[in-house]
Amino acid sequence: MAKIGVFVCQCGNNISRTVDTADVAKDASEQSGVVFVEDYKFMCSAPGQEAFKKAIRDHDLDGCIVSACSPKMHEATFRNAAEAAGLNPFKVEIANIREQCSWVHNDKEIGTAKSKDLTHMMIQRVKYNRPLERYRMSMTKRALILGGGIAGIQAALDLANAGTPVTIVEKEPSLGGNMARLSETFPTLDCSQCILTPKMVEVQNHPLITIRAFAELEKLDGYIGNFKATIRQKAKSVIDKDCTGCGDCWEKCPFTVESEFDMNLIKRKVIYIPFPQAVPTVPVIDRANCPKFIKDKCGICADVCGPDCIDFTQEDEILEEEFGAVIVATGFELMPNVYKEYGGSSMPQHLIPKKMNKKQRAAQPRSTSGRLPDVINGLEFERLASASGPTGGEIRRPSDGKKPKTVVFIACVGSRDANKGVEYCSKICCMYTAKHTMLYNHSVHDGKAYVFYMDIRAGGKGYEEFINRAQDEGAEYIRGRVSALRKKGDKILVKGADTLQGCAVDIEADMVVLATAMVPQADAIDFAKTLGISYDKHGFYSEQHPKLMPVDSSTGGIYLAGACQGVKDVPETVAQASAAASKVMQLFSKEELMREPEVAIVDKDHCMNCWDCVTVCPYLAISPEEVKDRDGNVVKMVANVNPGLCQGCGLCNTVCRSKSIELQGYTDQQVYAQITAFEGAFV
Amino acid sequence: MSKGIIRHDFEPKIMGFVCKWCTYSGADLAGTSRMDYSPHVRMVRLPCSGRIDPQFVIKAFEQGADGVIISGCHPGDCHYNEGNYYARRRNLAFRNLMEFNGIDTKRLEFSWISAAEAIKFTQIIDKFTNQVRELGPNEGYRVLLDPYASRLVKSSEESAA
Ligand SMILES: Cc1cc2nc3c(=O)[nH]c(=O)nc-3n(C[C@H](O)[C@H](O)[C@H](O)COP(=O)(O)OP(=O)(O)OC[C@H]3O[C@@H](n4cnc5c(N)ncnc54)[C@H](O)[C@@H]3O)c2cc1C
Ligand code: SF4
Ligand code: SF4
Question: What ipTM was reported for this prediction?
């Protein structure tokens, strides 16, 4: 026989004004199994909770109902109090007679009747509440960071400085990401390399950080606290640990191809580091373009390498490592110039084959932006303006190296127009276009910069001022779109419109810079599937809650940082990276992982292995498990729930036809008990 | 503020099955905003509308409910990503079954109510209450017995013993 206590709260007079709490308590005392009732002014107050605990102890209660405010308010309060008094916290239920009764029904007779009914339902339910234990799980206190751009770098440093071991997996041979390509950064115009490379060096020297450059994540298994990552370390053809980064190999290498880092504006060697300040400084051989691998010729690098670390036979290495948390920081890329009217090629940049014969290569524009060689994108401009770039920081156009006297910048190329690209605003282009006009004016003093824009969006600290400064320094802003770019001699005729003046504008430009939309990495969606996280229709990774959980992904233990989650500039990226790192610290600050026990469990005797639950579970928490007899023979297969992955939605419980899987805390029994107690009495 | 609750000859009994993230929170918001609405509904709080088994609805009708409300997060807003899509499909299939059994499908209300939609919540409750009141008592189903549920849970009288 149950021993249930019912505690009716008056909530000052918030409840008692429209509900006769004494009557509700009296009525509850007449219900089967109820051995104690209390009608009290403030159940949640300290004396109220003491009374609650005392009643549990004195009457040896095995279930409690608190008829009070919403469970969102005080379910946890009373469950904790029960635990302190020696009652399993999951034997406490709340009947919501404030938010869903006294505050919404003014008629006392009716409110009292409904409160009685709600209390009855909970009394019936609690009889079927099983005592539940929170799950305790051990965890691996190491973090995996995917992507070594500024987001990954910042998160790694924050975590490592807090004492957490970190591994960064970066697919390129060096850390740095897109920020390493930038010349100077808005809104202060400090040099990007100068603020980034010290951080890269700090990462390299940090005893708690392992860098896996030129590596990729192949597979991620497990769940929060206990992930198992399969990492492919691509063959560098160079023995990491012996390499001193002296550079003899890449100096002597006789073969060159376009440099991805320099946006194909210049060539790099076939054995290379992407840029001089690369971290790590270990070069890699680009096997697709190395004659040693194509026709077994050359091998000069091996001859000149002092420490003998060139290894042409090296193979990809598959590593399996364990982590407790993952931060995804895989960044963005720029949308290719696919616009015929802007001289674009229809072939997206990442699809242009690396390996080409001479004729094919000659047919390719020097700039990958398109067929008009002097129409470039923002990152190409960054390289032209960068002191360490192909022109040493002098702005010269790609086709003939002349200093462009007139440059037209076109904002919002591909952004804010779902029909022509993406519907969102890429947010940073207004700012970097203003920056580009300044960099241009600082380099070519007699040059003229024009900007075609739709709107100026400069909502940030010091941002509006930055735009004003660009205009003061001579950039001419024209509100309107450009309809076409045409080749005219060695110039480009820009056919635009000025919508403020209401007239057409033709400008003969020496160079055109397109602020193309910021889009997710080409493989972002596939990568999301590897990780098991959700993404939006563009391929940006979705946060758990757009306002209150901006760095949590949809999967526990996986966090997001930087431009992979949405368009961002460096300050925002860094802020998000630090936030993600602090989430991981929070997770790792506990001894063990505690999980609420409201997860599904399987009745292995009755499961008939139809796998309906496996199919329906949104978190892939259920997998088939073997049941063996004493001799170790597999007698049958049953479903098995991983409590680390289960989020407690109960979808499996509903689909299981043999009723073999239950969501603890919301079992069929509990729900039916509630329904059975339903009377629906109006007064 | 008070609209003074009028007593009719017939007051319907209504059971609600709602998810805790959206609709239950929407109802809480109606409470904190002190909105008045019909007092007939008794809600069962579940993690997700995808946890709502059609048999719960049958059991509710059997228990004497004249109407049942099912509600959860809007499509795309499910806390568990996709639970409400299962609820939606189940609702469609279940309606066919109700029709087949000769129960007026107007006795089952299915809606999306977010945690912010307190006004929508009260409007749906009021509208549905009036609708069920007009339909009158749901006699047909009370004689049925769900053997599964009665195996799991004893009736109140039995468990008193
Ligand atoms: C033209 C231009 C100018 C800009 N100017 C400024 C400026 O002046 N000021 C400013 O604040 N911001 C500026 N920005 C924005 C700035 O570049 C970004 O905010 C910043 O680079 C985002 O950093 P991130 O680490 O998120 O991404 P990224 O820099 O893109 O880094 C992502 C890293 O992850 C790696 N990666 C990708 N996929 C994988 C994978 N599957 N596995 C392993 N590694 C992977 C990539 O190789 C890369 O190293 C500019 C952007 C552009 C395009
Ligand atoms: S749905 Fe039920 S019977 Fe089918 S595999 Fe899952 S637990 Fe077993
Ligand atoms: S309750 Fe939901 S998350 Fe947990 S195992 Fe069942 S379907 Fe998966």
Answer: 0.92
